[in-house]
Description:
Blueprint: H1 2-27, H2 34-51, H3 60-72, H4 93-114, E1 117-122, E2 125-130, H5 136-158, H6 168-171, H7 179-201
Antiparallel strand pairs: 1-2
Helix pairs in contact: 1-2, 1-7, 2-3, 2-4, 2-7, 3-4, 5-7
Amino acid sequence: MREPVIATALLIALTGWCVLHGVSGIAGGRCADRRLEAAEIVMALAVVAMMAPTFDPLPQGLWAALLVASAAWPARRRPARAGRHRDGDPASPGARAHYAHHVVGASAMAALAVAPKHRHTGGSGVHEAVHAAVPAWTLFLLAAYFLAYAAVGVASLLLPRPTTGRYPALDRGPGPLAPLRLVSARRTVMAIGMFYMLVGMS
């Protein structure tokens, strides 16, 4: 029983860092797209709330509404401003792909927040699982997607990444502490958290 508790506590701490990193980026003017940054903060807070429901004062329906809003709100921005974090080119396929990734994550979180759940006792204690209203294959596909995203994120953090030179404020920093790499690390942590929750709820 100790291992899941430790893993959950570690992921909560890392996701809390994701929230603080996003807030500091907005406050310090270090993010190119504040709307997407704010949407990712909502996503990280929702992950923390789902992993520690005992300390969550908000009803699940409200979380679902916030997550849907976080997926829809960045879409209202002008296309020329979309997601400069990852590529430097705001209209690049990578920027559009990341916004699509955020929509997938926020939509999955919103569905899990309102899905009926039941409690069962297993070998490591009491668990809360998503009711059969959510097909098991859907949870499996989502878990596989976020695991693959996390694996790609880890690989990108370990491999050398040349600076673009187009947005020096985002590229500046030594090695793994460069702002772009910290953003990649944050999104990788979020993908790991999503995979962990989906596996735990299945």
